[in-house]
Amino acid sequence: MTTSKKIVLLGHFGVGKSSLIRRFVENTFSENYKVTIGVHIFKKVVEVSNSDSISLIIWDLEGQDDIKKTRSSYLLGTNGFIYVFDLSRPITFENLNSELEFLKENFPNIPVKVVGNKMDLVTKLYLKDYSEVFGHLVDFFTSAKTGSRVDNLFSKLAKELL
Ligand SMILES: Nc1nc2c(ncn2[C@@H]2O[C@H](COP(=O)(O)OP(=O)(O)OP(=O)(O)O)[C@@H](O)[C@H]2O)c(=O)[nH]1
């Protein structure tokens, strides 16, 4: 059986939302920054067991420094969120707590995966220190560039949505 679920990626400008999707859907990466205007929609079917698969409809929204500025029509009918920040740019996770609170209040019961991307740009020591302070808020550290943990992120969310 195949069911269809809508996933929305949120986060600041340039944190790597489009790159994570491209890595997951096409297994490609580009250093070029092509800013997303409005929304791009991608699709990928993921097998979650021998008999079940899930068709992920993935919405790549333009970057926002504040979730409240996102057009509410883009968020209608969302089954799961991926909130992405850039480990190498603290401004992209300064308001992480309040952004997550906003999602919890407005979309209760919708799963949210929090992702620290661009892991390849920070040292292991930085990541260790970072995890000690903010680790409890973060579900995955990823790199769209190397592909690290990208499949794990989408498959974990897909399984939760079934
Ligand atoms: N080193 C490194 N660079 C990355 C990674 N992910 C994305 N980038 C680079 O970061 C820049 C922005 O990536 P995008 O995927 O366009 O970011 P976005 O969040 O979709 O940006 P908006 O369209 O503004 O919302 C590009 O130059 C990418 O090549 C990563 O994991 N590591």
What does this protein look like?
The protein is of the alpha/beta class. The protein has a single domain, classed as Rossmann fold (3-Layer(aba) Sandwich), CATH 3.40.50. The chain is 30% helix and 26% strand. The chain contains five helices and six strands; from the N terminus they run E-H-E-E-H-E-H-E-H-E-H. The protein has a six-stranded mixed beta sheet with strand order 2-3-1-4-5-6, with helices on both faces. Helix 3 links the parallel strand 4 and strand 5. The N and C termini lie close together (11 Å). The mean pLDDT is 95. Guanosine-5'-triphosphate binds next to helix 1.
**Percentage of residues in helical conformation:** 25-40%
CATH H level: which superfamily?
P-loop containing nucleotide triphosphate hydrolases
CATH fold name: Rossmann fold
Total helical elements = 5
Number of domains: 1
Instruction: Note poorly predicted spans.
Output: none
Task: Give the biggest beta sheet.
Answer: 6 strands, mixed
Ligand roster: guanosine-5'-triphosphate
Number of strands: 6
**Average of the residue pLDDT scores:** 95
Shape: globular
Main structural class: alpha/beta
Computed over alpha carbons, the radius of gyration is 15 Å
In the sheet with the most strands, the strands line up as 2-3-1-4-5-6
Task: Work out the oligomeric state of the chains in this entry.
Answer: single chain
CATH architectural arrangement = 3-Layer(aba) Sandwich
Strand content: 25-35%
- What's the CATH C level? Alpha Beta
- Helix and strand element order: EHEEHEHEHEH
State the end-to-end distance.
11 Å
